[in-house]
Amino acid sequence: MASPIVTLSFTEATQKRRTIRALESKTTVPDSTIVKLAESAILTVPSAFDSQTTRLTVLFGDNHKKLWSITADALLAKIGEERWNGGTKDRIANFANAYGTILFWDDQSSATAMNQNSPDIYKDKTDEWVGHSNGMHQYYLWTALEALGLGVNLQHYNPLIDAEVQKTWTVPSAWKLKAQMVFGVPKEGSAPGEKAQKLPLEQRLQVFGANAKI
Ligand SMILES: Cc1cc2nc3c(=O)[nH]c(=O)nc-3n(C[C@H](O)[C@H](O)[C@H](O)COP(=O)(O)O)c2cc1C
């Protein structure tokens, strides 16, 4: 285990959050701390009508490695040797060589229940809201893991790997895989550069009526 837990303010933690794909199979905190974070995300992150549709699976050690071997097999079968050897193999190896992965799911049964119980005017919105809540869980954990000194990246090999993953970890069939979050200690020299902005702030943020003083 490397460095101790660092306590950052919310703003500092959100500024520290970046995509880091070169990761080592090491951690800065005990596995139990990461499990606590996942528990906390499940217990506290909001959802539409408090529908609580997001599910998580946390994989460490051989379970993490198994996920990336499932992904490697599925990708190789899909894209063939030439494309596999042309970069994909190394990309997947990077993920396999990290410390752990969190799987993000939507529980279709809870999503359907929310839709059935919601007023008619919202029925065409609830699917989108299920996705919003899942994204909030992702952002919560991404930011929290980076605040603990871990590096994180977010991957999407679903639905290619869904069936094998569900079979391997006996995941309920109603859960639909949405994202895979890889974490580990960032490799030397993997710190990202300053975040490039595609458009100036004033073209992306509107503010009206703010008081100059509190
Ligand atoms: C919804 C979403 C989907 C993403 N999907 C992937 C992905 O499949 N693979 C990947 O390597 N990065 C993925 N990313 C990471 C983005 O490429 C990254 O966040 C973006 O380039 C900005 O960089 P930053 O995270 O360092 O701020 C995703 C990010 C978001 C928010």
Automatic annotation (TrEMBL):
Q: Which GO terms describe its molecular function?
A: oxidoreductase activity
Signal peptide span: none
Q: Please provide an example of a Pfam family that matches this protein in its UniProt record.
A: Nitroreductase
Gene Ontology CC annotation, any one: cytoplasm
* InterPro entries to which the protein is assigned, alphabetical: Frm2/Hbn1 (IPR033877), Nitroreductase (IPR029479), Nitroreductase-like (IPR000415)
Which UniProt keywords are given for this protein, alphabetically ordered?
A: Cytoplasm, Nucleus, Oxidoreductase
Highest taxon of the lineage: Eukaryota
Single Gene Ontology BP term?
cellular response to oxidative stress
Nitroreductase domain: from which residue to which, for each copy?
Answer: 16-184
Q: Where in the cell is it found?
A: Cytoplasm; Nucleus
Q: Which family does it belong to?
A: Belongs to the nitroreductase family.
This one is known as Nitroreductase
